[in-house]
Amino acid sequence: MKKHLLALAALATVSGAAFAQSNVTVYGFIDAGILTTNNATGGKNATMATSGQWFPSMIGFTGSEDLGGGLKANFNLQGSLTNQTGAAGDATNSSGTSLFGRYATVGLSGAYGKLDLGRQIDIMFLQSFVNGVIPTHTNSLAVNGLLAYGTAANTNSSTSGAFVNNAVAYVSPSFNGLKLQVQSSVGGQAGDKTKASQTAGILNYDAGSLSLSAGYEVANDASGGTAAKKSLVGAKYTIGQVLLAAQYHTYEQGVAAGKTVDARGYEIGLGYQLTPATLVAVNYEDMKDDKATTDKSPKIVSLKAKYDLSKRTYLYGTVANFNKDAAGAIYQGYASTKGSNTKSANNIGLGVVHSF
Question: Under a CB-based contact definition with an 8 Å cutoff, are residues 162 and 122 in contact?
């Protein structure tokens, strides 16, 4: 008995010492809302509860350990959830049902930048999300362009193309406002390292009131042929209480075998800080796919509003119009419903987001 007690005491001492040298943070977002549309599945009216309509609902664990000399070891585990049902994954199931389907990384950081290995969000998708006038799930080129065109490019990507398996990512330090991001997915195929691989690079410039971005991505299929290409350029500028944002995106799929998607889209937004707690914005998205036989030219115009109740909780509202091509091709309000492509759709969304 005494031996068992001594062993437990020793274990507690060792564990305490280990945790004293590192830290772990639990974090997350819960987004619960209601969406009403006049053109849901089958072209019918629908009112539904939503999760992740404005911002992704998620839970995560992150931490770091000081290794000395300015070097740190870091990890990030992050999973999506649908808070209406408690299920893993989001409304469109783009992150799958994995426990940590968004991030499962470990890496190092220091004076020369940050290196992470493991499953990650595609940096091109993440940059497009950030480029929006108000970064939101609903009515943004990042999500709508991905849902319409950005499907899986290689065997290491998820079915949505927003997440990348077997990834290695590097973020450089900032040099006079310039920062480089590189992300590569290792194919692991015998005989050719380019098979099922994916590589993306983004250059960012941040001057406080002005931010610019430019990125390019190439993905190969299991035979080594070019399966998809993406590119983007974006800019955001703040003038007092006014925020201006614009970006241009391209999507190409089936490049080696003959393009099945040859699409481009742009997004422009105008935001205004009405009060310290209230931000409103109008947003317009225009997309076109030269290879599509239907839903060739989705267009969406939306009005968004966000009201901060505190530093961690806010209310949101959206009003949007989808033309008939957008209604048929894109999930409305990030709810798992698409409308008929024979008529346009109008929707209203309301909700609350709490972070922890």
Answer: yes
Domains: count for the chain: 1
Distance CA 78, CA 161 (A): 17
Pairs from 72-76 (Cβ < 8 Å, separation ≥ 24) = 72/108, 72/109, 72/110, 73/106, 73/107, 73/108, 74/105, 74/106, 74/107, 74/108, 74/109, 74/114, 74/116, 75/105, 75/106, 75/107, 76/103, 76/104, 76/105, 76/116
Number of neighbouring beta carbons within 10 Å of residue 283: 25
pLDDT for residue 94 is more than 70: no
Question: What is the spatial distance between Cα 173 and Cα 154, in angstroms, rounded to a whole number?
Answer: 30
Residues 6+ apart with CB under 8 A from 349: 33, 34, 35, 36, 50, 53, 54, 138, 316, 317, 318, 319, 320, 333
Where would I find the beta strands (DSSP E) of the chain? 22-37, 46-51, 58-68, 71-82, 87-88, 103-110, 113-121, 163-171, 178-185, 198-206, 210-220, 226-239, 242-253, 261-275, 278-289, 299-308, 313-322, 345-355
User: pLDDT of 56-78, one tens digit each?
Assistant: 999 999 999 999 999 999 999 99
Pair of tokens at residue 302: 């939306």
Q: Please give the model's pTM, rounded to 2 decimal places.
A: 0.88
274 domain residue, yes or no: yes
Domain-embedded: residue 132: yes
Residue 152, domain member (yes or no): yes
In the chain, the N- to C-terminal Cα span, in Å, equals 42
**Domain range holding 301?**
34-355
Measure the CA–CA gap between 130 and 124, rounded to whole angstroms. Answer: 10
Return the CATH number at 329.
Answer: 2.40.160.10
- Residue 8 belongs to a domain: no
